[in-house]
């Protein structure tokens, strides 16, 4: 997978890495990925509250992801202008995303 400015998501020998960045991907399953058409912004969601965001071509952990570690997130919808979205997960979890 890839994003803007040559950002790369690699899977090798059972481990995910993001251009050598140590993000909490080990042991997690990715369920949904969204990347905008320019490749500059995006998001990945998965098991144990995993939320990874792509901002200006750089992947990083979402600052609120530690609050959702008990949940698996399956669905991701982002508006066409990228200013809001929704994440759905197990046990009725529904998260509203707002911002740019």
Description of the molecule:
With 100 residues, the chain is mainly β. Helices cover 0% and strands 46% of the residues. It contains no helices and nine strands. It has a four-stranded antiparallel sheet, with no helix packed on it. A three-stranded antiparallel sheet has the order 7-8-9, with no helix packed on it.
In short:
This protein has 100 residues and is an all-beta fold. The protein contains no helices and 9 strands.
Unreliable residue runs:
2-6
Shape estimate? globular
Q: How many runs of DSSP E, i.e. beta strands?
A: 9
Q: Report the mean per-residue pLDDT as an integer.
A: 78
Q: How can the largest sheet be summarized?
A: 4 strands, antiparallel
Radius of gyration: 13 Å
Discrete helix count: 0
Strand content: over 45%
Calculate the terminal CA-CA distance, rounded to whole Å. Answer: 22 Å
Number of individual domains: 1
């Amino acid at each position: 997978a890839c994003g803007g400015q040559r950002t790369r998501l690699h899977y090798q020998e059972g481990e995910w890495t993001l251009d050598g960045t140590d993000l909490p991907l080990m042991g997690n399953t990715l369920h949904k990925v969204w990347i905008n058409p320019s490749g500059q912004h995006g998001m990945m969601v998965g098991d144990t509250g995993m939320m990874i965001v792509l901002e200006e071509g750089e992947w990083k952990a979402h600052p609120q992801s530690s609050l959702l570690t008990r949940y698996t997130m399956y669905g991701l919808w982002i508006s066409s202008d990228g200013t809001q979205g929704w994440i759905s997960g197990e046990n009725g979890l529904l998260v509203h995303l707002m911002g740019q």
